[in-house]
Specification:
This protein has 509 residues and is α+β, with helices and mostly antiparallel strands. It has 14 helices and 19 strands. The protein is 32% helix and 26% strand. Strand 1 and strand 2 form a beta hairpin. The chain is elongated and about 85 Å long.
């Protein structure tokens, strides 16, 4: 960016101050969003050359400025879209016309006037008063084509939002989706709660945590990888339906589906099971689609995903047989199939190899929403076993476009079985995980937790799928970036991933 452009703007800033103008504005009431102004022009049936009787107020950032002498046409942008502002030397007070002549792209202004249409039928507010709210010292990206380099876009999201309307649209839709999820659950008597982000013992998922230290208590703490064990304590306490929008942190890889900090919905329903959670997931997602509009068949890149309910409910073993061509209970066949695709884990548990085959052969082939249910029990230490077959856990994952969107269980509430499965899990994790048994959680179960269904859903991934974005980083306002090397004159650099694709996106166990 040229220093001369910035210097020119600084000179204009001083000219404004010399005119007695505060270039950084102040409070303004009665501002209508640009979308509402456009709707108002249509509702009043204003024709070209006409103006409304009542004054209105518009505000926004200047994204287009055409100075044609005694007329200036400006396009203002706010979070709802664009609207045209017309400035005429004959209509503005002299001092305010001087302000108009010192305006630049990216300045923020407010104007009062009457709504109308130009000769070309463009909805326009003809200003009678102009108020400068902020003089921008840096010009926007050249020709307002917006930022395109992903690295710069994520680092300068504040520029990305006002130069790329589709980015603003995504984050407005994200807010709508999260509000819809919240309303859906509250209407069904779920209580929204908050559980600790700093935890003395992390649990509820198999993931590497971020570690910190509390000086006063002189103890190590962990940023939570999951809220699960605390939410289950609330079931013990008598809160029969609870949910939380939890910020979770996993010290692992970054890619299009994973960010070290992400937002997870977890919900628990006493006296329910994983079938109830399937119903909940279907209803919740389709309610979001109804709110967004656009129908149940949605474009995702070059694909179309059909969210029409009911969604298939397929057994894990059947899918492994169908796509990998092996019986998952046939140890020799499983190991031979794993070896055929280069997976050599002589000492790995069979369940781990089965999971590898599932990841390789099954998930990539599931485009439309599919509930994959009845998992190998050894993969699910927090899940109730099938009464008719203890090798099976009553767990499902909701897979969409080959990606895990949600994970749910019939929750395990037998304290003795829970302690045994957790000790088995800990024995296989190794010292580097720093994991220890959560004795207080076992004690809570000994007081009695009602049978329950529980679900975890990745909200960033839900936004990805419903807004058609190819990367989770497009749905998080400020995704984690590698610190940028300071190179004189550099405008941005490649943001290399922090590690391999190892971070679970949504993992309740």
């Amino acid at each position: 960016m040229s220093d001369n452009l910035i210097e020119t703007r600084r000179q204009k800033l001083q000219q404004l101050r010399d005119l007695g103008i505060d270039p950084y504005g102040g409070r303004m009431d009665r501002i209508l969003p640009n979308r509402m102004l456009r709707e108002k022009v249509e509702r009043l049936k204003i024709e070209a050359g006409q103006t409304s009787e009542v004054k209105n107020r518009v505000a926004g950032r200047i994204v287009l400025l055409r100075n044609i002498g005694k007329l200036i046409f400006i396009t203002l942008r706010d979070s709802t879209g664009d609207f045209q502002l017309g400035l005429s030397k004959s209509m503005l007070p002299e001092n305010e016309w001087k302000i108009a002549k010192l305006l630049d792209l990216s300045d923020i202004v407010v104007a009062d006037g009457h709504l109308g249409r130009t000769k070309t039928n463009e909805p326009t507010l003809w200003a009678e008063h102009l108020h400068l709210q902020c003089k921008a010292l840096r010009p926007p990206p050249e020709k307002w084509h917006g930022l395109s380099d992903p690295d710069i876009r994520y680092r300068q999201r504040y520029v990305d939002l006002f130069t790329n309307p589709e980015v603003m649209r995504t984050f407005r839709q994200r807010v709508l989706i999260l509000n819809t999820v919240r309303e859906y659950l509250v209407e069904r008597s779920f209580l929204e709660v908050e559980t600790p982000t700093l935890q003395p013992i992390y649990g509820g998922a198999a993931a590497r945590p971020f570690t910190t230290h509390h000086n006063t208590l002189d103890i190590d703490l962990f940023l939570r990888i999951s809220p699960e064990l605390y939410l289950k304590r609330l079931l013990v306490g008598g809160m029969e339906r609870v949910f939380e929008f939890s910020r979770n942190f996993r010290n692992e890889g970054i890619d299009t589906r994973h960010n070290p900090e992400f937002t997870l919905l977890e919900a628990y329903q006493a006296y329910g099971d994983y079938n109830d959670m399937m119903d909940l997931a279907e209803g919740l997602v389709t309610c979001c689609i109804d709110r967004l509009g656009g129908g149940m068949v949605r474009k995702y890149g070059e694909k179309e995903i059909d969210f029409t309910v009911p969604w298939p409910r397929r057994k894990y073993a059947d899918l492994v047989k169908e796509f990998a061509g092996v019986d998952m209970w046939d140890s020799a066949a499983v190991r031979a199939k794993a070896a055929s695709i280069g997976i050599e884990k002589k000492h790995a548990a069979e369940a781990v190899l089965i999971a590898d085959l599932y990841d390789h052969f099954v998930e990539p082939n599931l485009l439309n929403p599919t509930f994959v249910m009845d998992w190998p029990a050894d993969l699910c230490p927090l899940t109730r076993r099938d009464p008719s077959d203890p090798r099976i856990a009553q767990r499902f994952e909701l897979i969409v476009n080959g990606m895990e969107l949600a994970n749910a269980y019939t929750e395990l509430n037998d304290p003795a079985v829970q302690e045994a499965t957790l000790r088995k899990q800990l024995a296989g994790q190794g010292d580097e995980t720093m994991a220890v048994m959560d004795e207080d959680f076992i004690q809570a179960l000994e007081y009695g937790m009602p049978p329950a269904g529980g679900i975890g859903m990745g909200l960033d991934r839900l936004v990805m799928l419903l807004t058609g974005n190819p990367s989770i980083r497009e749905t998080i306002l400020f995704p984690l970036q590698r610190p940028k090397a300071r190179v004189p004159g550099e405008q941005g650099g490649a943001d290399s991933p922090a590690g391999p694709d190892t971070a679970p996106g949504v993992t309740k166990s």
